[in-house]
Amino acid sequence: MLMLIISGCAWQQKNIERKGFSMSSWHLHDVEPTNLELYRALLPAPLEMPDQPVVSMFIVDYTEVYPWPMTPYQEGALFLRSNIRDRRAGIGKTMPVTNGSE
């Protein structure tokens, strides 16, 4: 048991400076919505419909994450372009993240 604790501490110390994420694969897509009424309904006030509506989606698989005890995980997101007071804005509608064990 003591050996596991010591080797775990050594691993943590060795990797303490390695902060960040390594991705094995990722996909990013921007598409024009086909249902503008639904798009508009998904924008809460005070967000306004943009001149060019865009749905942005991404999926990423983080295979290595640091520092310890973080574990690999997957993440995805769906964003809608919008306007607010004549400026470009956006809103995230969903952003599921696994807990690393799924």
- On the 0-100 scale, what is the average pLDDT? 79
Q: Please, how many helices?
A: 2
Percent helix: 10-25%
Overall outline: elongated
Return the string of H and E elements: HEHEEE
Strand order, main sheet: write it out.
Answer: 1-2-3-4
Query: N- to C-terminal separation?
Result: 28 Å
Radius of gyration: 20 Å
Strand tally, please?
4
Poorly predicted regions are: 1-17
| Protein structure class | alpha+beta
State which percent range the strand residues make up. Answer: 35-45%
Can you summarize the main beta sheet? 4 strands, antiparallel
Please render the helix and strand layout as text.
Layout lengths: L1 H14 L4 E12 L4 H6 L13 E12 L6 E12 L2 E8 L8
Antiparallel strand pairs: 1-2, 2-3, 3-4
What does this 3D model show about the protein?
- The N terminus is likely disordered.
- Strand 2 and strand 3 form a beta hairpin.
- A 4-stranded antiparallel beta sheet has the order 1-2-3-4, with no helix packed on it.
- It is elongated.
- By secondary structure, the protein is α+β, with helices and mostly antiparallel strands.
- The longest helix has 14 residues.
- The two termini are 28 Å apart.
- It contains 2 helices and 4 strands.
